[in-house]
Design a protein that fits this description.
mainly alpha
Amino acid sequence: MSNKNLKNRLPFASTLDKNLYEKFNKLHEDTKIPKSKLHDEAIKNLLEKYNKKSNS
C-alpha cells in the first residue's frame, strides 16, 4: 500500500493498551466508522481538552 495517494492525511503508528484496543476495535466494528476517523475524533477531543486547560 502506497502512501503517495494520501492527499490530506499522514501515516501514523503507535501502540495501545490491549484493553483499549479491544474496545476501540469493537467500536469500529459496531459503528462501521473507519478507524482513521475514530482516531481523528479522539485526537481532536484530546487537543480541545488540553487546550482549555492551558488557556485557564
